[in-house]
Amino acid sequence: MENKDKFLKIFLNVIPIILMILLIPVIANDYILTGIYLSIIGIAFSIKYEKKEYIFLIFGFIIMTISEAFFISTGAEVFTRKSFLDLMPI
Fold it and tell me: Are residues 45 and 5 in the same domain?
């Protein structure tokens, strides 16, 4: 595979992540933001889905939630938006 093709593949995979990050300061309502995130994930899955990819999504969600809760409990992170478990933004 050419370097140009590799770059394009990486870039296309990163677009949803960049979009999701850029939406954080724009959308103040965590529930609406979560709905948009789920839509982006659904669209990404419908465009290209690899076998058992949902397992990585679920595993990442669980591990990220646990690690974020740990960082909050140690004071390493502080969130002003606390819509999920009254600890952090959804």
Answer: yes
Judge if 37 and 70 occupy the same domain: no
Residue type at 36 in one-letter notation: I
- Pick from 38, 47, 63: nearest CA to 9: 47
Model confidence pTM above 0.85: no
**The total number of residues written for the chain in this structure:** 90
Per-residue pLDDT of the chain (90 residues; tens, 9 = 90+): 578 888 888 888 899 999 999 998 999 888 999 999 999 989 988 888 788 888 988 999 899 889 988 988 898 888 777 787 777 777
Indicate if 41 and 3 belong to the same structural domain. yes
Residues 1 and 42 in one domain: yes
